[in-house]
Each structure stands twice: as C-alpha cells, then as structure tokens.
Amino acid sequence: MAKPLVLVTADVKAVDGYDWHAAPSTYLKALMSGASVIPVILPSLGAEIDIDGALDQVDGVLATGSRSNVNPQIYGGDATDENGPYDPGRDATTLPLLKRAVERGIPVFAICRGMQELNVALGGTLLTEIQDLAGRADHRAPTSQHQDERFKIAHAVEIEPDSILSGILGEEPVDVNSLHRQALGRLGASLKVEARAEDGTIEAVSVADAPGFVIATQWHPEYWVATDQPSRGLFEAFGAAARAHRSKRLG
User: Fold this and answer.
1) Which listed residue (139, 180, 220, 245) is catalytic?
2) What is the pLDDT of residue 94?
3) Is 220 in the active site?
4) What value does the mean pLDDT take over residues 120-136?
5) Burial class (CB in 10 A: 0-12, 13-18, 19+), 162
6) What is the CATH number of the domain that holds 209?
7) Mean pLDDT, the chain, as a whole number?
C-alpha cells in the first residue's frame, strides 16, 4: 500500500541570486521514519498556489519551525528589525494553507513557527521577545555551534488532562527542548491549550471543533524522534491520522 503524502511548508531563502524554497531535513526525515509518510515540500508562492487543489491530493500538512517570524502587521502589531527576519512568501502561503486544511479535516501537525502560524491563521496574536516579559523564562536556544546542544532538553511541560495530547503522551509532565523567542498571545478561534510551561507559556494547542487531527507544539519533537519516545509518539499519531485520511480520501 502506498504511503500517505504530507505537504511540508517551505521557507524562502535568497541564495546566489535565486529564491530557494526549502525545508530542513530534520522534519523530512522525521516524517519518513516517525510517521511513515512521504513528505512533499510546497513552495511558498502565495496566491499562485491552488491551495485546495494541493490539499485534494495529500493526506496531511506539516508546518515547520523557522528562524523567521510571522509579520506582526498581519495580526495588528508592528514589524521591527529586532523582531525579524520575516518571510512574506511563507506567510502568504502557510496561513491560508493551515486555515483551509483545518476546515477540510486534513491532518495538521504544526511545530514552533508552525504553531504560531496556526494561531495567526485562526485570528490569534503573538507575543514577541517573551524573554523580556515579566515572569517569563528565557525560551531561546543555547548559543552553540552544535545542534545537539541547541536542541537539548530544556524544561518540562504540563499536559492538560483529558486533552488530545494526553491521549498521545499521557498526563504526566513531558521534558522538551526550547528554541523560541515568541509565544502565543490571544488564542485564535477554537484553539485549545494542550500544554504549558511552568512560566505559563503555551507549549501546545489543538483546535477544539476541528473535523480532523490537529496538534501543534512550540517545541521541536522532530529533532529527537529517533531516541525520544514522546517525540516519536507525536509523529506516530500524525502518521496514523494521515493514513486514516488517505483511506477515506481514496475510498
């Protein structure tokens, strides 16, 4: 039986005079090994993309993390050099993609920037530079040239009881990594908190009335999917949802 296809969001990177549309290999490999699906990178071409046409042919959407941030002007904030960099092509593609995937019941897994995109796509806002806010911890990655150090486990998150996440990981606290300087502010329509850090930062959400699987994490389970059971469990749950959607889509 053919494996499900999963759309993966793309950053736009200017290299040698060309705009490259790319996704980190960690996400692609985690999808293949942890979710047992085939990743397909969707170029961030905004309105040139037929979103519904693309979604007709796939069984899930993975929204990746990124060094760029959603432009605050989209949710009523101010764009600044300090808050950047921004990726207008990605914003123009991923926000409508996520909104439409949720509406259509196509499985969605959103990670870090992806979780922030999901919130903005559904009408929510973001908090910028949370390490400067009173009572908040510093959630940024350690300064290091070594990825294992940057993605190391940093703190625990408390999982909400009787939540989608508790059904996947159980209700005990889970230790996660932390590589972000933004967080969710006002929640978008129907978003439900699934987990929080000790300082109150929202670490995972779902969509309460979504017709399909939707889970988003502020941490990066893709990095440790080969060795960390909670990380693998999230990808396995997403893969199961994608296979169920494929069976339904193909009859």
Assistant:
1) 220
2) 98
3) yes
4) 90
5) exposed
6) 3.40.50.880
7) 95
